[in-house]
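Q: Could you fold this chain for me?
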Amino acid sequence: MNKIFVSALAVILSVNICFANSTDENKQKTIKNWLITDAIELHLPAFNSTEDFSGSTFDLKNLLQENQIDLCKMNPKESDKLNWNESVLTWKKKKANSKNFVSLPSNENQLYYLVSYLYTDEWCELELEMKSYPMIEVYIDGKKQLSQYKHESDEAKESSKSLKLEQGHHKIVVKLLSGEKNNQFSLSLKAKKDWNSDLFDLSLSSKQYMDIHKVLDGTKVKSTSLSFDGKYALISYSRTLPPSDKSENWKEIQEIESGKILYSFRGTQLSNISWLPTGNQISYTKAYNGKTSVFVFDFEKNTEKQIAGSIADFSSYTWAPNGKSIIYSVGKSHSKDWKMKKFQGMEDRLPWYRYRSFLYKLDVASGVKQRLTYGTLSTSLADISPDGKKILFTTSRPDYSGYPYFKQNLYQMDVETFAVDTIWKDKLVGGQAQYSPDGKHLLVQGGPSCFGKIGENIGDHPIANNYDGQLYIYELASKKVDPITYNFNPAIDAAVWSKKDGKIYIKAQDQDYVKLFSYNTSSKEFTELNTSSDVVRGFDLSENGSALSYVACGISSQYKAFVYNVADSKVKVISNPEKAHLANVEFGMTKDWNFTKEDGTTIIGRVYFPPNFDSSKKYPLIVNYYGGTSPVERSFGGRYPLNMYAAMGYVVYLLQPSGATGFGQEFSARHQNNWGIITADEIIDGTKKFIKDHQFIDADKVGCIGASYGGFTTQLLQTRTDIFAAAISHAGISDITSYWGEGYWGYSYSMNATGKSFPWNRKDIYVDQSPLFNADKITTPMLLLHGSDDTNVPLGESIQMYQALKLLGKDVEFVQVKGQDHLIQNYTKRILWNNTIFAYFAKYLKDQPQWWNDLYPDKNL
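A: Sure. Below is the predicted structure, expressed as structure tokens.
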């Protein structure tokens, strides 16, 4: 850590950073400043002198070991309180004496907790050295590192432990059990070879920067749904259970006005919990002997009623708006174990292709169950009419005779007479449909080409990007279609038609924001709702239309659950479970930074700065960009948490190149039949302009990272420029042809990326633009990361690029993540995967290869 950084850190933390006199060539620092609790008097348990089954009696060391509080949750600062049984303890400052020992009163069997903090500017190896007279345990980040279980009155017991610490903030906790005399200890840290003590700082500040545990750990709010009157919220939560790879998921019912938790479904075996459309009731399912039963619980009357039992192969259910019936789905796979298999089409290689599901109706009052659909194609429920008498359902099938190779039928069924009408047949680009409040219209969500050219607003481009979600109002009687989002640039994610005010409420991707809007069907105007956030993850409208609930976050603020009052537009936070978990985290600033191309197109972007940013310094730069065709949202955390990269001392530049949805149909249509040329050139252009406009960027230390299509982009970039010092491609596509043929979604994704273009008629795309066929042009060191079980972008995409670059004598590394698919989801492996990224960038952008060498030492194989 250089002197400028140390100075900046000292100012920001504003704490007593105390450096020991330099010894051993500036290698060692003694921890002189501590926070300490009041003394806690401990007592031996009853029958402590009685031998247990192993012949042991209760020892004083057991007194130290077995009196515990959660060290991981403890991040105190001076004057904070600590609850211990019925006592309230206060954290106070304690300083070592002139001999670097912390001295405590000579009272026997008193427990003390002491805390200090360490910040290291890079991954490093340190030696933790302890001298102690009393019994003591020392923890780093909640893990015990040193201990001493004897009271030594004449000579301090010495011990040490080698530590490998990742860059960032670390908590040092001491548990000490006092003896009747000489209760002193000393703790110091010594930098090992390749480092010196300027690398790390000691302080009493609990301020932290973003790290992987802040991203993954803690309780997360996942989704919300409202009771019919909007007075209660059903909130879903999850949390990791480190150090295991397990997690916990549960739901709670909260009264919105008071914030009171009425019910928690934690630890239950209930599934499919949802509100009824009338009354303050919920329904859920239970499984018995492999079959499913459905129950209704009235939480105001505290009564439970079973409405259906013993349903085999149950999948899901939906309530009719009048609450008198449910439509449920049953399904099973028709795949069998096989030695030889004749494929019934391209999709038959997908493991779920032979799964079929069908619809049933349950009359709640009588308990009568009736089958509604049958056949060879799965039927999927789209919606139930407001009066509960009709349903919309779809079927879909592959059809290789014409682009885009999937055909959808939409049907309306009278569930009393079983009469079926076809709404549309063999629609080339299908849509999701729901009834209007009066049942006379449908609200259809689909791509720009859902109803042919009527919804396309793509300028001179021949093919639309059908991932760019649009909305249509379809009149059932006349079959007239109104493309209501034709001139609305945000891409539609979800929509619901309110029965109360007749407005359509929408969640949409608006550039790199995800916002809520309302659409007035009379004035045909869109209005943005104030969500007090940057990215909305999901939303729910109460059945009576009085309120919206949603989960959302900011660019540097965690996900929370909100309720929006439709009448007065007021927003209320109803759940913020990560508030304490992130209370001490300090973020760097963020700002927007855009540039304009020669053709007049504005490419938007944003910048993340380190928390201690100093414009007089030079910083390494990491460049990030979208994968697929969705922009990188301004979301908190995520799989590539840019706040965390910034916390590690990088400036991060994120840009949204052409082809992304949420910028209007013409912009997104640029994705079709381009496969990265426009995208890559905009990234190169933007990166050069960004470096030129920001003198604090070290132009020789610029890295880039992307995943999936973004991983392809990473590889393609290196064939077109040498401005990067390091490149990371996760699950990247190296050969467009092999991806088109082998990935589970290869050819179907290519319908949108290379519509009507194939390896046999567009060699200029499939070969000439594939990084593999241009591998000899690559000079940038590259890391290829890939889940070994990736079904979207098969592992071979990285294997063949690794093989090519090795044969060409290029600087390339290849790391597989065992047992992971396209996304790295396993808790432990996700940490290792992130550390691999951090270590690789540290090696090439900071000239710090030690972390990488420790993770992946070269072996003489």
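A (continued): The first helix runs from residue 3 to 13.
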